[in-house]
Amino acid sequence: MSDIETKFYNAFIVKDRWILYFKGLGVTMEISILAGLIGIVIGCVVALMKLSEPKPGKKHTVFWYIATIYVDIIRGTPSVLQLLIMWFIVFSNSKNGVLVASLSFGINSGAYVSEIIRAGILAVDRGQTEAGLSLGLSKAQTMKEIVLPQAFKNVLPPIGNEFITLIKETAIVGYVSLSDLTRTASQISSRTYEAFMPLIGAAVIYFIIIKMLTLLLEALERRLRRSDLR
Amino acid sequence: MISVKNLCKTFNGQDVLRGITTEIDKGEKVAIIGSSGSGKSTFLRCLNLLEEPTSGEIWFEDQLLTDPKTDIYKVREHMGMVFQSFNLFANKTVMENITLAPVKLGVMNKEEAAEKALNLLDLVNLRAKADVYPASLSGGQKQRIAIARSLAMNPKVMLFDEPTSALDPEMVGEVLELIKVLAEGGMTMVIVTHEMGFAREVATRVFFIDEGIIMEENTPEMIFNSPQSKRLQDFLSKVL
């Protein structure tokens, strides 16, 4: 057997090690998807809190302050540190590592998603809202029927981007000893004393997953665009 | 029908409207002229409270709009508005643009609204465009649809905010023609416009707004043939 073949064999085939990579990928995706969903829910709520505009001369609402402080803190500290704080301080008694990690990444992602959604809503022409109001529709009806559907199209690409970032960022769960894809690869390489195959293998798996996601998002975007040029 | 008392509006310390008082009766067609920045659009947008007045009173029929207790959303159902930039809902088809408000607000059911919309599309001569999205329409077509959308609510008054200012010259005519048809049908309307010929022809009364007040108001003949104030004479000499 050639050298490359041996390395490949040791990295993936021996003791059915390939199963470990897929288990790792499972952890990575589980955390990413859960965190992504939490992030979108938090992001929507926080975006609406930040959009509650004060009347001229009046102060911001208490919601605005809460949302602003949240976004500032999350964006102002490293996500690794947030994860460690959640893990060793806030939920130090929790047994469910995946859930704690998901929550930590979700809270982190929510701050970025909220800014994306806020910008997406603000990017919808003010005239659209005025037209809705001038017909007698309420602010909520105008938001739901007219502004949000248009904002959705604006936010889809950056939200997709955020989710892609999130998938890769979960690689830091190795810090709290969760066996995601990256940590699995690193553990196998320390067992076989050979880094090339496991690490490149993990990189290829990340790449394929994200490439597929990108293609999916592009297709979705194309469909949304076509519907308003018919 | 609309009664305005000492209306003032201040934007960031700048007085845009400095005390406007006037009455507009049912069936009147009021044209508002004036140079840009004079406050004429702000005045119009105050009438349905898209712009919140700083002080003063606005009455519509027997309701005081400037009273915070008044349900302004309900009032707006009776006041159509047409914008300079059309503002058709980009995510809705022409048909949906027209039927959205009547259906959502419970004024009509879906079938009634659809029938009404088709009639209005006949009126504006765009029935063939019922199922397209606004992005594929020309400016003139968009504005005609916007007018149809307002009419779907059966408004008692129509507010036009420079309805032809964003149009290519060859499309101005089709929109003015449509507004003229509405005027002849007896609709009460307030029109901010730069089209002096149109104001002269269609309006029953013309306001010349300058520096946030109604500097002069009169019949179109008087305004255009014998302007009283120096400001109006200057303005007309520039635009005519």
Overview of this structure, please?
The complex is a heterodimer of chains A (230) and B (240). Helices cover 80% and strands 0% of the residues of chain A. Chain A is mainly α and 230 residues long. Chain A has a single domain, classed as MetI-like (MetI-like fold, Orthogonal Bundle), CATH 1.10.3720. In chain A, helix 2 runs antiparallel to helix 3, helix 4 packs across helix 5 and helix 7 runs antiparallel to helix 9. The radius of gyration of chain A is 22 Å and the shape is elongated. Chain A starts with a helix and ends with a helix. In chain B, the strands form two sheets. A six-stranded mixed β-sheet of chain B has the order 6-7-8-3-9-10, with helices on both faces. Chain B has a four-stranded antiparallel β-sheet with strand order 2-1-4-5, with helices on one face. Chain B is globular and about 55 Å long. The mean pLDDT of chain B is 95. The chains are: A mainly alpha (230), B alpha/beta (240).
Provide tags for this entry.
heterodimer, A: 230 residues, mainly alpha, MetI-like fold, 80% helix, 0% strand, elongated, B: 240 residues, alpha/beta, six-stranded mixed β-sheet, four-stranded antiparallel β-sheet, globular
Which structural category fits the helices and strands of chain B?
alpha/beta
The level of helicity of chain B is 25-40%
CA-based shape of chain A: elongated
Element-by-element helix/strand order of chain B = EEEHEEHEHHHEHEHEEHH
Q: How many β-strand stretches of chain A?
A: 0
**Counting H and I runs of at least 4 residues, what is the number of helices of chain B?**
9
Work out the radius of gyration of chain B.
18 Å
Task: State the oligomer.
Answer: heterodimer
